[in-house]
Amino acid sequence: MSKIVQQKELEAQLAKAKHAKVNLLLKQETEKFLREKQSLLENLSELQKRCTLLTANELQLRTELGDYTSKYEEFQDVLTNSSKVFATFKSDMDSTSKKIKKLEKETNTYKQKWESSNSALLEMVTNKEKHDKELADTQQRNALLEKLCRFLQGERKELLQKLDIQNSNSVPSTTTDVPSTTPETTEVSELCDPNITKL
To answer: Hey, CA dihedral for 61, 67, 68, 70, is it positive or negative?
Structure first.
């Protein structure tokens, strides 16, 4: 009878340890998720700011290019004989065009980074939904473990009472009373089955 009591105590302690371990893992995963989410949000905000700035610069340069083009058309008739002025003006236009191409390339790069960050954020949201489902499942398992702890404690108390009665009566007994199988004990047996996947 004492061995049975000790076994029940060990089972109860094991269930409590599993419960504490699961809670710790859940807390660590939640903190990690929040840190990663905050980092991605900060990166996304920075990329959006840069993309907006580059877009504004691109628009400004396009406006300047439009102005240069307009001036070029105005001066073309007047300065047809001034090759030097024409060459200088053309050089400015070429330089502006190169700047626009460079800015367009940088804008596309930051746009791709923004899209990548946005995709990562969507993936994190999907992972969060998955973790939330896993959390709900884990909480359900925790509830079963808590129920198991209460059941084992009650069974231990019952066995101790029987042991006290046997000791007080000092009556030899050839058989040991074993609690009958109930739906609750069946549920506990299934929960403690080693074939069941552990948390």
So the answer is: positive
> For residue 92, is pLDDT > 60?
yes
Using one digit for the tens of pLDDT, what is the confidence trace for 131-145?
899 999 999 999 999
Q: Is the pTM of this model over 0.70?
A: no
Cβ–Cβ contacts within 10 Å for residue 1, how many?
14
